Amino acid sequence: MYDKSDPRASLSSARTGSMLSQTGLVTEPQEARFYETAPQIDDDAGQSWLHRGQNFLVAYTKTVPGAIFSRQGQIDEYCVLLPKSGAEITWNGETVAVPGFSIAFVPPGDSTVSLPQSGELIRLFSTQNSDLAEACGNARGYDQPRDHIPPFQPWPEPKDGWKVRSYSLDVPPEEGRFGRIYRCTTLMVNVLDPFDGPRDPSKMSPHHHDDFEQGSLALTGEFTHYLRWPWTSDMADWHDDQALAMGAPSLLVIPPPVIHTTRASGAGSNLLVDIFSPPREDFSNKPGWVLNAEDYPMPQ
């Protein structure tokens, strides 16, 4: 259920055969408050927190000047999100300067991301990269398979071949468009327009997803995530409602088919980034929503 002012109100309703009626699903959220836990990696490049979902993982780093992050034999495309500080990304012998307040996608293979200045670096990967998946603080949270989530399947390669692609996040809001959505072969990332102050409590958006997770990455401000488990015929599936208060930086992975909505609650700017893997078809089918759709074809 979306408020009529929410662009997602125009999306098609849930498919028949909804997971809401199935039993025995693994529906435990995975939450990480980076600001109150020790990093998984603390080295000369900075402090890094890693947290995963079924198909994706987030590496959030507070970097030092001159930090270099290398990937050798990376098996698939990954994302680099630069909220403020710029970076240089090298792949296939070519270096691309990416300014701050940008998002970039890096092809498979060997690559480096270097930051001349200190700042925040967010990298998003698929969990097909087992070395990173095992380094996550919640690595054991997925030992029990989520059989209701389909096996990971990447989307088609870019039509004009592999290269580092970067896009400015300086995109003004537009009537009828939801956030600032970008996709690659492995991920869909929605850098939402920030809420200035608390969200209007009369305009919430409770909804659920049948068969994919949502990662909600808080970069500034404070949020309350509201979760409600549907009642099935098996009382073992029933849970009390949850209201998870989380500051920034933090990551909540919301499982299907849990009903959820999030309210920005901080007094200042509240910035949230939604993550999906692989990309969402419903968002991709909305004209103008995916800002780099021309670069990445949809599956046939």
Describe this structure in words.
The structure is a single chain. With 300 residues, the protein is mainly β. The protein has one domain (7-284): Jelly Rolls (Sandwich). It is 3% helix and 38% strand. It has helices at 130-135, 281-284; strands spanning 30-33, 41-43, 46-52, 56-63, 67-74, 78-82, 87-91, 94-98, 102-106, 109-115, 119-126, 165-168, 181-183, 188-191, 195-196, 214-220, 223-228, 242-246, 250-254, 259-264, 269-276. The strands form 4 sheets. Strands 1, 13, 14, 15, 16, 19 and 21 form a 7-stranded antiparallel β-sheet that branches. A 7-stranded antiparallel β-sheet has the order 2-3-4-11-6-9-12. A 4-stranded antiparallel β-sheet has the order 5-10-7-8, with no helix packed on it. A hairpin with a 2-residue loop joins strand 7 (87-91) and strand 8 (94-98). The model has no long low-confidence stretch (mean pLDDT 96).
